[in-house]
Task: structure prediction
Amino acid sequence: MIGTRGAIPLGHLGGLYGTPMKRIFLNLEILDFVALLACFAWGFIFDPSDRQDSAYMVHFHLGVWSTIGNLGVHCLIFIYFLGTGRWVKEVAIAYELPDVPYPRLTRDLKRRTFPPALFAMLVPIATAASGLGAQMREWPGWIHLCLAIATLVINLWAFGIEYRNVRINGGVIDAVLREVERIRAEHGLPTNAETLELEK
Result:
């Protein structure tokens, strides 16, 4: 069975594995957190009783776009773990690798990462909704303030978990690739790099 398997094309991972993904995610999470922090700080600048204050519009737009950006960053994590988890599973089937440790570890990492990521997406949405409620004077301002603080704290917590698990997952992918190279060598097959070069 193994002798009939072709090379593993890394291109379909889109470069989002190992070190590149760690770097990409770290930059995105820093950018996202700075945007959320700027929105939080700007909330103290304008006069909430003055609906015509131009500073309110800055706070409003920072809130909307930093929330959308936040959703995008955490959605990237969902897509990354779904995609790489499926890749590890398919490679394990193709090369008859056992479920433990690699496929199982990718599933565990996904399960550990998704709840904090989802929570970190939902709280900013609630914060944005409460902000509009406070501006319309339907909700007390302290609710918006408490949710804004929770947004910063929860996202900082979630980013730490996500980054750690992305780093571990990158190591899993590298280990799977090494294992595949070992199996191919044992069966007298060319390396992945050699096979991909021949397929060009």
Summary: The longest helix spans residues 141-186.
